[in-house]
Amino acid sequence: MRYRVSHETRYEYASPVSLCHNEARVAPRQLPWQRVAQSELAVVPAPQVIQWRQDFFGNDVAYFSVQEVHQTLTVTASSRLETSERPLPPQATNLDWQQALGHVGQRATLRQFQLDSPFVGRHSALRRFAAPSFATGRGLIDALDDLNLRIFETFVYDPGFTTLATPVLDVLEARRGVCQDFAHLMIGCLRSMGLSARYVSGYLETLPPPGQPRLVGADASHAWVAVHIPEWGWLELDPTNGARPGMRHLVLAWGRDYGDVPPLKGVMSGGGTHQLEVAVDVEPIAGESRQGALSGF
Q1: The whole model's pTM is what?
Q2: How far is CA 99 from CA 84, 92, 103, in A?
């Protein structure tokens, strides 16, 4: 699948801002199943400083500083990329989940994804919720698929219930939330079982109802989970949809939880209150080259 992605963030401040420093994580990652042909960042007003780096998790981060007085700030990320099917873990990796725990603990780099993080803490209530999926002797991958599906089937997608600050245990009790909540919930369940799980941010191509046109700017950011499978790698799971991510899931960044990968964050001098508008457009690019690649690759 080939896509053109636009992610526009606009801040309108109640009073002038004299200076702001920001970090943006809006450039898709280069992955074996995701090839990025182009990624650009446009900022208005134009920043006096803009620098790119990779953070601790290997995500591309743009730091920029706007040093002129302004009352609106618009940040637009434009990307062009191609996705293919993710590799699937072989049946041999579907070992007993309790046996898998011993392998997980052997790598120090995985430890950070087992411990508590700012938005996700381990808890006995999360372990109790996860436990029915992790019966004694059950294969790890089978258990993961079951937990992923249970969250999808027993929780209600409710954009009005939670905020960024809503605790995971509140989501568990109310059985409702949004994709970010369900990702944090599943990560908390898995870490409470002793597994390594990380948060993945990105986009999901949404399809209009039959016969209806695509609405430009009506797509949204999405979040899901990746779990480490011993002797293989990271398996992605989307509890919001009860499925494994496919070619329509576009990866931006990953970390321990949302706090490691916000699309845009920063500090400013002045401004007062502000209004925030976000418009995301994930547009399929029609046509295939002979090799199935984007022209210009």
Answers
A1: 0.92
A2: 32, 13, 7
Q: Which residues constitute the domain of residue 182?
A: 92-259
In a domain, 291, yes or no: no
pLDDT digit string, tens, across residues 33-76: 999 999 999 999 999 999 999 999 999 999 999 999 999 999 99
Q: Which letter does DSSP use for residue 68 in this model?
A: S
Q: Are residues 40 and 156 located together in one domain of the fold?
A: no
**Mapping DSSP to helix (H, G, I), strand (E, B) and coil, where does residue 151 land?**
helix
Q: Are 248 and 1 in contact (CB under 8 A)?
A: yes
**Largest Cα–Cα separation, the chain:** 63
Q: How many domains does the chain have?
A: 2
Whether residue 292 is contained in a domain is answered as: no
Structural domain includes residue 135: yes
How far apart CA 60 and CA 148 sit, in angstroms, is 28
Q: Please tell me whether residues 266 and 253 are part of one structural domain.
A: no
pLDDT tens sequence across 136-170: 999 999 999 999 999 999 999 999 998 888 999 99
